[in-house]
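Local shape tokens:
==================
===
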Amino acid sequence: MTDDDPYAWLEDVTGETALAWVRARSEETTGALATGDAFDAMRERLREVLDAEGKIPYVTRRAGYLYNFWRDAAHPRGLWRRTTLAEYRKAEPAWDVVIDVGELAREDGENWVWQGARTLRPDHRRALVHLSRGGSDAAVVREYDMDERRFVSAADGGFRLEEADSRVAWIDADHLYVATDFGPGTLTDSGYPRVVKMWTRGTPLEKAETVFEGRSTDIMVVAHHDATPGFERDFVNRSTDFWRRDRYLRTPEGLTRVDVPEDASVSVHREWLLVRTCSPWATGGTEYPAGVLLATGFDAFMAGERDFTTLFAPDGRSSLEAYGWTRGHLLLTVLRDVRTELIAFTPADGTWSSEPLPGAPGLDTATITGTSPDEDDEFHLVTSGFTTPPTLSRGVVGGQTEVLKRAPAFFDANGITVEQHFATSDDGTRVPYFVVGPRDGRSGRTLMTGYGGFEVSRQPEYNAVFGRGWLERGGTFVLANIRGGGEYGPEWHTRAIKADRHKVYEDFAAVARDLVRRGVCTASELAIQGGSNGGLLMGVMLTRYPELFGAIACQVPLLDMKRYHKLLAGASWTAEYGNPDIPEEWEWLRAYSPYHNLDPQRAYPPVLFATSTRDDRVHPGHARKMAAAMLEQGHPVHYYENTEGGHSGASNNAQNAFRWAMVLDFLWQRTGASTGETGAASAETGAASAETGSKG
């Protein structure tokens, strides 16, 4: 691929020529992959899972109520609803519907997709509801009165924002922090807000008071108010890149910098400041390594003291996955070789004590949710595994836990085992991976996935879609915990960014080879799937290691690493990948950029690209251009683009079921003893598609 991009016209997201190409390719793909009784049966079985009444309705606690967002067959756009704990304990709780998104969409004549709501502490009577058209990140914001069950009109002083990728936060009943598109020059190069303002009820947005302005090269600027009684504070955060931010305490006298490392994770709760380091930090006469969690008094820290207590330190096999507060306790989720441990810390009289919390057995995962730090020491705990349906429990720190909900089994796991193994990457690093499959360890068709970026950890979880669409058919599922993620803390991530990004791909390839070496499958039986940054992973596997795989599904992907930083939110990721405008960094990127490493003479496994026209995070042009180039070269390619769905690729359960049925059936049909499609066999079709798809 030369620097003169012959397919740049496909970056015109809604251009008629580009959309004509999209429609033609999508129709070809659905005609080839999404027809017949077998496909229809698979789609319906997946739809049953997504719409099932027996799913756990996960909740958020607010002022005595448990709130839930729910989709099912009767309510494809969803219901925002609430109930009480007493009702929730019942097998069939009585739910009070706050907003019916489908009914609202019909009234407004809009394709609304729910994007969440921010409620006003402490009584949570008012909410800032975010509604997206078609599932994009950009959303409108409307104030909602929970008691009167109505949106507050502008005539009544209601807060409203037009469609934008906004960040809003309550200060009090009459004031908001707003970071949005205020007009020309108010967005960063990444397309996020550069300016944050304080907006007073009853005044026009253009009269809002500017609180802080960042630079156009920043990622974004936001502000928030901590309304904890007795500890009210205001903070401004300026993200200078994806991993670094400046933090300020806002007072009547102005902004005071919180002097912590730019790349650290920082939180304030009541009197406590917590700092989780991402790189070594020398302060107060002590050097702390990356990945530690430190605690100190916030006011003392702002006064210059640097007396920290170390609550967690990694040991090479463990990492801090998450932490969160109840009113009086700090709950830690620790991963040890990607297995979950839970710990409760309690501060008292200047010291911290700890005790274990009940966690998940074996290779399952435990996740703490549902704390209410303003109110009490209650927490909700979700346990789940590859073959273990989720269980939701309620506990109080120091007390007993009770099971509130259990999800049913959506696929037959009899005879399926879960094992953890380690592959050796090119540089000698041990890379963990999970194998879920038949007890005898040999199934043939194997589906492998991974992510490998942005310090995102991938853990065992119950995925009923993959269970029905792959495991129940006799296949094996593999999750690779490759570098770039957070499974072993920040260094597992930082050792594989920018110039060292190649290690992500070497790790994934090492797992693929290990599966073949151990006899789990052959290369032709190995399918792989990934989306977003995982879609980039798929693109690199396709172009760098095509001999290792039988078929590839590449979803909402980054693929053109020469122009990714100029497309939508791409500029925000240069801290992860590098800046292609800098010659040295382009050399790193050029070495693996899938779009620039296509070879017309090389044989590639069949690939399905899937994306969304409404994805305003990762530009659909990545997938469009890659598919067009491969078709021109005669490679086996399928392309599908949903007209809505945003970065998730689907905006409702029907679309989700259709998409996953197509992806899983494609991978199943293209792997195994007879793939049914080869590069040579599909070359004629590819050439014909390229002819109709050229810009002309």
About this structure: Residues 16-33 form the longest helix (18 residues). The mean pLDDT is 93. The domain at 22-48+417-693 is CATH 3.40.50.1820 (Rossmann fold). The CA atoms of residues 429 and 613 lie 39 Å apart.
